[in-house]
Amino acid sequence: MNKTFQLIEIGIISSILGIFCEYFGAIQFLYVILIIVIFVDTFTGIAVALRHKRFSPKGLNKFLKKVTTYSIAVFTVRLLEIAILTFFKTTALSQVMGIFLIINENISVLKNLAMLDVPIPSNFSGFLLRQLKISGWVMKKPVNANSRIEEIQDIIDYQLPTFEDDCIKSLLRIYFDVWKHTVMQLNGYLKKNDSDHPDMIYFKVMNLVQFAMQDVQDKWDKLNVTRECMEKFDTAHKTKKNQWLEKLKSICYWDCATADKKEEQIIDSIVVLLYQTIIDVRKGYYNRNGSKVDLYNNY
Question: What is the pTM of this model?
Fold first, then answer.
């Protein structure tokens, strides 16, 4: 619902500015700005991907797909304007479309800059948080973080092999490897000056969570895990995952804690979540009497 209202707001603003540009601006200049913003968004997006070691050709494919989609939208609107030339001459629709796309691109650029630790006014933090798409809704500590990473590796080495089903083991190994990598990224991720900006801390943490969840999904797809099996896993684990997301929020907005302390608590909460994941999956295998129920037998 928030996303719908946001699109309506952008549409209204775009319409007002488009009408203004119809009388006081040139359409060619508008699309020059759009092209510049697209390239800025692309380069900052690549910088974020490289920083978080998530760069892949898939990102460039998204760039080409975006350019194609935008081009089709612009040409379609322009053809509509040509079609109504019999009644009156206008470029207002093209102006509105151009401004709408520029606003969307600027939102993406703002998100990328925040992830690159470029200072962003705190007033934008709440707005940036609304851009995240997550289902359901530190450390001085090289030593502490490293011990948590070792603990996750211990789960991978000693807990996952106890599952008889090879597919489940592969699915869980991907899940745990991704979250181990996320914990490594979190180590030293929050800066001291973030302490006074809980909204920005929350945004940065939730953005990493979004990256991790998408990474898990992509790797499961490559493993050819069936959609039904993914849904069963998500259903079994959904309650605990949602509770964890709420806990993350409370940690990020913890008034008395420094950024380092929040980072430590976030990493601890991830480890607890991973232990709970093992329990939830085992519940999927066995009922209360210990009989096997094969919840995940559709790989």
Answer: 0.62
